[in-house]
């Protein structure tokens, strides 16, 4: 699912608008048919800080992912590796990429991509579904392009 320049322009305008990050995340979820998502941004303390989260994520999960260390969980690994981290089913994943707390969401298919600016990770964009799902390489590439657009808003 490639994303066209019109969609990327919409994301850039939206993230810079009053509705900002939350509305941009809503557009992304709709475009990919995803049920849930988060955007984390890298702060001066070296941690990823939650900037936006879709509705319906349990409060206990929000508290758990409010800050994420680089290299921990899918978001931290995507930033550390500067590449997508994809899980067909986070409920049964045994790769070590998924933290046990992620299972509380009830989500299954999930992908997190780094938000890159000049090849430097400045955040992470994650989306997920309640059913099993493998995000394709084409979808991962599209999410990476969206991440580059989000980075321009920083």
Question: How would you characterize the overall build of this protein?
Answer:
This protein is of the alpha+beta class and 154 residues long. 36% of the residues lie in helices and 24% in strands. It is built from 5 helices and 6 strands. Strands 3-2-1-6-5-4 form a 6-stranded antiparallel beta sheet, with helices on both faces. α1 (5-15) packs antiparallel against α2. The two termini are 26 Å apart.
| Alpha-beta content class | alpha+beta
Strand content: 15-25%
**What spatial order of strands do you see in the largest sheet?**
3-2-1-6-5-4
Q: What gross morphology would you assign?
A: globular
As residue ranges, the low-confidence spans are: none
DSSP summary: helix tally: 5
- State the distance separating the first and last CA atoms: 26 Å
Radius of gyration: 14 Å
Keywords summarizing the entry:
alpha+beta; 5 helices; 24% strand
Short description:
The protein has helices spanning 5-15, 20-32, 59-65, 73-81, 137-152, and strands at 36-42, 47-53, 67-69, 85-87, 110-117, 120-128. The protein is α+β, with helices and mostly antiparallel strands.
List the helices and strands and how they pair.
Layout (H helix, E strand, L loop, with lengths): L4 H11 L4 H13 L3 E7 L4 E7 L5 H7 L1 E3 L3 H9 L3 E3 L22 E8 L2 E9 L8 H16 L2
Antiparallel strand pairs: 1-2, 1-6, 2-3, 4-5, 5-6
